[in-house]
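Cast an eye over this sequence plus tokens and walk me through the fold:

***
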Amino acid sequence: MSESSRSNLPPLSLHVPEPQFRPGDEAEFVSIEVLAAGITPRPDSAADAGTMRDLAYGLVRVLDDEGTAVGPWNPRLSPDLLRRILRSMALTRAFDERMFRAQRQGKTSFYMKSTGEEAVAVAATYALDREDMCFPSYRQQGILIARDWPIVDMMNQIYSNRADRLKGRQLPIMYSTREGAFFSISGNLATQYPQAVGWAMASAAKGDTRIAATWCGEGSTAEGDFHSACMFATVYRAPVIMNVVNNQWAISSFAGFAGGEATTFAARAVGYGIAGLRVDGNDPLAVYAATAWAAERARTNKGPTLIEHFTYRAEGHSTSDDPGAYRSADEATKWPLGDPIARLKNHLIGLGEWDEERHAAQDRELAEMVKAAQKEAEKNGILGHGLHQPFDTMFEDVFEEMPWHLVEQRDQMRAERAAAGI
């Protein structure tokens, strides 16, 4: 094109994403299309990924505005299982409240709550087998709680005390337990995605029946690790469920910076030929149903599924974050998909299987349970109050067999400490 013809064109410009609301604005989520519950079709779990592209742009919902379970995705769970899911979500919230308070009291350095997102971890975990391997991000403490992992053990890790199974080496809330099929949390975002795909590939190569599930935030889908994992998952049809928790915000930047303005995050699946679902992340029944569908698909060698959980981070990113500095103060109350605990509670009440009195009693019971667990954990110490782990442990648990130079350094340290009388 000649210079003269270019002179008639407007100058190029960049689009810089900007959230709808800033501090001081009134939040109105009128741009969000909330599809009616029950209208999204449910394909056979063995269907070809190419036949279900519309699901990546829709919204799987089971609970309607009256709390009734409707449509083809209704998992038809028993009242007992629904109550267990409700209890695990409520316990997760009570745990979060107590540990948040502990951080504010200076008993630990850091904490991250999952308020409003409990269904993403808890309901999904109930749809998996106990031995399926989970590769979480840092806001899925509900996985361990749904698997009845001792909350005292979780608190010991948060306090980095003498009973901490990780010996104070991990940032608080970055749990790890092989027995709980819960892979080590990493502060480096999206690293768990290729790890989960690799584990799933290994499980298939060995002829095992266990699958993997992994979680990341919507911002992490911009990381190279996410896309590498998708490529390996689709090429080898890895038996893995890849969960994207779209809670609208990274620590202080909204979903648009990860591509959320252009399309859905479930649409990432389309380009890779992966089955993709976009799910109401505040609907525990929808989360359960989508995860069970994806698990069946993975377990029958039909390949991976990417699930976008459309939800909202009700509070700060962490105890280091002030959301009031970058978003509207009333966003959480205006979020159109409600609260997952309240929605499941109302569903059970509608079935005649629960009531407000029992719910209030359960909240009191769980609050007392968490308070007692905190007292038990604090008997082992809290962060910053003395040395809880012997110096020797800094040399351990890196190599299967400690190499000679570390043995030499350890022995030298012991000798010097003994000579100094410490």
